[in-house]
Amino acid sequence: MDRIAVVTGASNGIGAEVAEELARRSWRVAVVGRNPERTKAVAGKIGGTPFICDFDRLDEVRGLAQELSTRFDHIDVLVNNAGGIVAKRSFSVDGHELTLQRNVLAGAVLTEELIPHLIAARGRVIHTSSMVSRLGRIDLDDLGFTTRRYGAGWWPYAAAKLGVILYARSLAQRTGLESYPVHPGYVRSGFGAESRSGRMILALSGWMQISAEAGAAPLVHLVDTPELGVANGTYFDGLTPDGPTHPGAADVDLIRAYWRKIASFVDLSVDQPHAP
Ligand SMILES: NC(=O)c1ccc[n+]([C@@H]2O[C@H](COP(=O)([O-])OP(=O)(O)OC[C@H]3O[C@@H](n4cnc5c(N)ncnc54)[C@H](OP(=O)(O)O)[C@@H]3O)[C@@H](O)[C@H]2O)c1
Questions:
Q1: How confident is the model at residue 182 (pLDDT cuts 50, 70, 90)?
Q2: Is the residue at 157 inside a domain?
Q3: Is 104 left (phi over 0), alpha (psi -120 to 50) or beta?
Q4: pTM
């Protein structure tokens, strides 16, 4: 049976490298991207299938889930990698702060819609978080940063990447599916290019960045290692399990409350089937 991986944010940077390496290892790869030309170019290069979707629109994310469900009878691994920083406070057509939607809500909608296909394959979900999550502050009454400092996008980004860990752990606890959040490293990619502060930070610290290929390595490891030998929900700092995280990331009440809050934002059922 084909091993099928769905990789989001696969049109560029880390995700494109993940898609390429998985194809090299004989995985069948669904290459999900927003930019049609880049997405098709990556898919063409690796013999994968392109899927175009703008995560800033939840109707497109639900459409993507439908397309994937029709195309594949099972999904072995979903890599929730699309995301990034949003420099100016802005909101999606769905009414959500854009950083939260791009990094957390869209991936959660996609994942929840694909749970039956993932369960069918005893599948795994990998979530690209960031070490910046350690600076994240979760306010369940203001996940969209309507009243808090936006900090050129860095505060909502840090909170969203902490949210990625909380969501990944909630998924593990609710469904029994293997679910691992990971920090890929400080990676040379398209990240931060749209933001002035991002470009400034890059100018000062670009020399510390690793290649996109090196940033993809931990994700590929998590996809392609049959037995990881760690507890479900473990956070990986690169290839290292149990990397340092925000104390809130281990708070079971916060994990549950965060899930309930984001589920209510995007009309998802809070109770999901459990893997056998
Ligand atoms: N670079 C780092 O140092 C670093 C560190 C920690 C975590 N991360 C995380 O790693 C992930 C990959 O980022 P990267 O560094 O590879 O940056 P990148 O080169 O900018 O790639 C970002 C990917 O996400 C996709 N994307 C962004 N917004 C989207 C949207 N609204 N709808 C659909 N797709 C969207 C992009 O699609 P298009 O190109 O088609 O628009 C692209 O494929 C992100 O979640 C990022 O937050 C990066």
A1: very high
A2: yes
A3: alpha
A4: 0.97
From the CA of 15, give the closest atom in ligand 1. Answer: 16
Query: Which CATH number covers residue 259?
Result: 3.40.50.720
Query: Is 275 inside any structural domain?
Result: no
**Measured distance CA(254)–CA(209) in Å, rounded:** 32
pLDDT for residue 114 is more than 80: yes
* Spatial separation of the C-alpha atoms in residues 113 and 268, rounded to whole Å: 9
Q: With beta carbons less than 8 A apart as the criterion, state whether 9 and 18 touch.
A: no
In a domain, 239, yes or no: yes
Number of structural domains, the chain? 1
The domain in which residue 43 lies consists of 4-265
CB of 91 sitting under 6 A from ligand 1: no
Question: How far apart are the CA of 100 and the centre of ligand 1, in A?
Answer: 14
Q: Whose CA is nearest to atom 34 of ligand 1?
A: 34
